[in-house]
Automatic annotation (TrEMBL):
The gene is coaBC. CTP binds at D292, K302, F338, K356, K360. Residues 1-196 are annotated as: Phosphopantothenoylcysteine decarboxylase. Catalyzes two sequential steps in the biosynthesis of coenzyme A. In the first step cysteine is conjugated to 4'-phosphopantothenate to form 4-phosphopantothenoylcysteine. In the second step the latter compound is decarboxylated to form 4'-phosphopantotheine. It comes from Cellulomonas shaoxiangyii. Binds 1 FMN per subunit. The lineage of its organism: Bacteria, Bacillati, Actinomycetota, Actinomycetes, Micrococcales. This is Coenzyme A biosynthesis bifunctional protein CoaBC. InterPro entries: CoaB-like_sf, CoaBC, DNA/pantothenate-metab_flavo_C, Flavin_trans-like, Flavoprotein. Coiled coil: none annotated.
Length: 430
């Protein structure tokens, strides 16, 4: 596939070198189009050596070949990483003052922008408006990761890891991902053919008033990876997505007719959507971070400051996972829960996970540590899979796509049992 890799002038440009190598190793032809400023971080010689293609930055270079038009017209996919605040602004305004922005105007193929900048720049109203404009036009703009930035700063604005960008970009072009017959995608088993799966993903939001809500840091990436992995292995999947960004959902749905997405916002909406879809499901995976509490009342108008403390009364929400176990929508289905734990003075992450596994009663519980830059909003995860008795049956660490397949391996092992007669044997038809 013919890919244009745009590189804007940010310190994260060095990560684009790894992205270029990854795309090339998958057999794609990559033309790098850097901005002039980006060459202060990574030089022209590096791009030409690794891409095997000439590198130009201005519309007045290669004039005889009309490069400022030809490159964009020829491209089958355009990826810009990093996309700085300046690049986002120029792209939103339709500028064509260098070769990269001219290419963006000409391209009619899928375009993915991976922003990277300081938190203040990402959250500035101008950048927020520019991102919204680009998304309205059909451009796929990733949310940046949260973590260490230049210097001692931390916060949202970090460029996602190259493997995450590559997966999100290739997912926009049907058939582009996993085309290498020797790669990992080719080795995945088709052991879920005919199996009907429900996966919940993301984080629920419980409204306080028309403006504010109680929420959490879940991006939905692990749930989306689970949905995609199940579809790749042959399952028919319903993805109940709680406040998951469109470009993240695209990682599960693009190029697949096996994933149906049901968007929800609150915990109660998620509960109804999951139970409705689960009536015909063989497996339900509750990967969403569902709020444990919601405001007792929701204000009709925006709450105002009063100059003093504000009281907020919370009530417990329904435990959706526990309800699926005690009152299953379909008898005999396999239920898999997720437990995000931090550990505290009363116990470790695993100890809390074991207690929750015994309390919830799900067939499997996937326990993962969160906080301090782990799990939420990151491209990787580190999980321990427990059975209903709290015993460890599997562990996995690495990219969330790989973790997703490890979870499905654990589901298959649980269903099949030591000799094909495990506790849930026969639940899956495949």
């Amino acid at each position: 596939m013919r890919i244009v890799l745009g590189v804007a002038g940010g310190i994260a440009a060095y990560k684009a070198v790894l992205l270029l190598r990854q795309l090339r190793e998958q057999g794609h032809e990559v033309r790098v189009v850097p901005t002039r400023a980006s060459l202060e971080f990574v030089g022209r010689a590096t791009w030409e050596a690794l891409s095997g293609q000439p590198v130009t930055t201005e519309v007045f270079e290669d004039v005889d070949r009309v490069a400022h038009v030809a490159i964009g017209k020829r491209a089958e996919l355009v990826v810009v990483a990093p996309a700085t605040a300046d690049l986002l602004a120029r792209a939103a305004a339709g500028r064509a003052d260098d070769l990269l922005t001219a290419t963006l105007l000409v391209a009619r193929c899928p375009v993915l922008l991976a922003p990277a900048m300081h938190t203040e720049m990402w959250e500035h109203p101008a950048t927020v408006a520019n991102v919204a404009t680009l998304r309205e036009r059909g451009v796929h703009v990733l949310d940046p990761d949260s973590g260490r930035l230049t210097g001692a700063d931390t916060g949202p604005g970090r460029l996602p890891e190259p493997d995450v960008i590559a997966a999100a970009a290739l997912a926009l072009v049907p058939g582009a991902a996993g085309t290498d017959a020797t790669g990992p995608a080719a080795a995945r088993p088709r052991d879920l053919d005919g199996v009907r799966v429900v996966v919940s993903a993301g984080g629920t939001r419980e409204p306080l008033d028309p403006v504010r809500f109680l929420g959490n840091r879940s991006s939905g990436r692990q749930g989306v990876a689970l949905a995609r992995a199940a579809a790749d292995r042959g399952a028919r999947v319903t993805l109940v997505a709680a406040n998951v960004a469109a470009e993240v959902v695209a990682g599960a749905t693009t190029g697949s007719d096996r994933v149906v997405v049901v968007p929800v916002e609150t915990g109660e909406e998620l509960r109804h959507a999951v139970r409705s879809a689960a009536k015909d499901a063989d497996v339900v995976v509750m990967a969403a971070a569902v709020a444990d509490y919601r405001p007792e009342t929701v204000a009709d108008a925006k709450l105002k400051k009063t100059g003093g403390p504000a009281a907020l009364r919370l009530v417990e929400t329904v435990d959706v996972l526990r309800e699926l176990v005690t009152d299953p929508p379909r008898p005999g289905q396999t239920v898999v829960g997720f437990a995000a734990e931090t550990g505290d003075v009363t116990g470790s992450v695993l100890e809390h996970g074991r207690a929750k596994a015994r309390r919830k009663g799900a067939d499997l519980l996937v326990v993962n540590p969160v906080g301090d830059g782990r799990a939420f909003g990151t491209p990787t995860n580190d999980v321990t899979v427990l059975d209903a008795a709290g015993e460890v049956v599997a562990t996995a660490a690495g990219p969330k796509e790989d973790v997703a397949h490890a979870v499905w391996d654990a589901v298959r092992a649980h269903v099949d049992g030591p000799a094909g007669g495990g506790p849930a044997a026969g639940t899956l038809r495949a």
